[in-house]
Design goal:
The complex is a heterodimer of chains A (286) and B (412). Chain A is mainly beta and 286 residues long. Chain A contains three helices and 19 strands. Chain B contains six helices and 22 strands. In chain B, helix 5 packs across helix 6. Chain B is globular and about 75 Å long. The chains are: A mainly beta (286), B alpha+beta (412). Strand 2 of chain A pairs antiparallel with strand 10 of chain B.
Amino acid sequence: MMDIPVSIERRPGFFSSLGSPEALDHLPTFLEEQFARSGYVEAFDQYLVEPQGRITDQMKKLFIEFLEFYDPKPVPGTEEEHYIRVAVNELHCPHVTGAKAKLTVQGSREETINSSIKIFGIGGGDEFTVTIETGETMETEGNCVATTLSVPATFDRCRMNTPDGGHIEFARLKDINWNSKLIKGEVLDPDACTQFTLNNPTAEQVTFDFIHVPSLTLTPSLTVKAGTKWSNEATVTIEKLGLELGAKYESTLTDTITYDYTLIQGYSYTAMRPYDAAYWLWKWNS
Amino acid sequence: MGLVFPANPNEIDRNKPGTHALIAGVSSYPHLRKGKGSLGPYHFGMKQLTVSALSAFRICEWVVQQRDRFHPPLASCRLLISPSEKEQTQILNEQRNTLRAATFEDCNIQNFLKDAKEWREDASGSPESMALFYFAGHGLQTREVECALLLQDFNDGQGGVLRAAVDLDNIYGGMAPAKARPDIARNQLYFFDACRFRPDEQNQFLRMNTTDVFPVEFDTDKGDGSAIVVDDRRAPILYAAVPGGSAYSAWNKYTFFSHALLSCFKGRAGVKVQNPYGQTEWLVTAHSLSAALTFELDDINRARKLALNHTMNGKNLTILTLDGAPSADVVIEVEPASVSDVSNIDVLNDAKKKVWQLKSPLKPYPPRNAVPPGQYTLNTKIAPERYPFADTENQIREAVPPLSRWIIRVKN
């Protein structure tokens, strides 16, 4: 476990912007989330509209109608604290004895900024961008590991009417703890290396055929360039509501990462990087 | 360049009649709110869009797929799009064989000027050609500009406020027949799928000039016997919004106008004609398209509580041939409506075969269904009996695309 500088930027979400025109910007995302959860697709569909100009009176009218009928609001005194566990770096390595992998961040600054992670507003909550400053290297041998950031977050319960006269309850990401952060390394389980298929047309792929080479080890390097973005989803269980939430987050690499590998002869290795990933996955056979 | 059809520009035969399309769509505006770049000074309250580029892509793919149906067949198609990240993924998923190998150019001012120039050159070889233009994205109206098309780099802080915007009138004027282009396509079709709202902020500027796409010639009569090339185009413009009004999209799905347009192209706008050989054909013309768009948009308005309202200027022209008869939507109403709960209706086709059976109570009311165009017989039975109403038989009605309203007057 280590403590690394983390800064957090907050942007108002649906509930925080109610009363201002910005709330209309958040309505479609909020509703899409709610109808995915509640199933009232047709009822909400009429509000999922965007003007090809700026927000119009027509949109404002729809919005007021929505608020008057559905009346979404947080329920006071229902806060719960949970961790949102997001992957900062993933380092995959062939599960072969003697195979090694090393991740190095090529920072041009003394204090390297490695990753910017955007946690999208959940349940109409605010959006948070977590920037992690790290100049770390990471090594592994024969297995796949990750650096994860556990973000302590406060959720509360919200309530909204439904077209049939009932109501739904849902969890909102209310806040995240600015002072407490936990970064740790852990072995990945499940491991994406055991789940991907080769020949993905949108992925980069490199094969190292070392079945019949004379030397004992080879040391190829792969990189992922700065600016690469990827998205993922962390699962959070809200016990009081009996809900499992998918906390969507998007990461952006602000520096290039170099991956150095030590591969053992007698195997053919294929490395693959999906276009929306900042890591290389491995398949191998003898 | 944004040429997506044919793959090789040398395959374009300008002198042979052909349809030449320029299709553009912008969703990602780096210098508007929530854009990837720095927010420029004149955003007029506009933000990123979710489906304009995707809608342009879908129109383009359909046009290329159905290329032989156009009058005349498609000879070239250019596509410029600035999609959001989400749209990029969706476009990748939706790319079928027609555009599989194509890469797409950004719809910025530089690319737009370049492709528009090439488009005009291609369309200038034969008067029997057709030029097709479609734009989806942000649009606005100023005192000087009827329809400004805002391109990807709009509001980047360089030059005037509308430097990265073009004026539809300028494009239309530049495509007019002139001494410099006597053989330009006389059939032209323009679609403007954007708002025409009038931002109040324009009052702070003496003038807001867009960038000219073409120099617009103005031929004059010299009195020396050399004739002016008159503007005898059939060149309708279809707008997704009325002057001062807004166009809308279904968030993350499609622009309503493009969705309605594709539905019309695919059959809703079909009109039956008999060719000189006595054969029946189903065509889509600019007028049938406009009429069908009214029905399509009205349907959306009813479902979404919107006020979509398109307009059309210009003469009629034939756009394409359908591969067969399109279906016609039929709405059946009973008069008086209070009898709908005891009305049972059988709809028979011209071979007297029952094709639609409606049992009482008629719910939802009025019932609606799609049927092949043609003549139908309606028999209505009142059951259980309700005095003073009686059964009616053999009422003849015609199903005509896109929508027919049949009213059955129940006897009493």
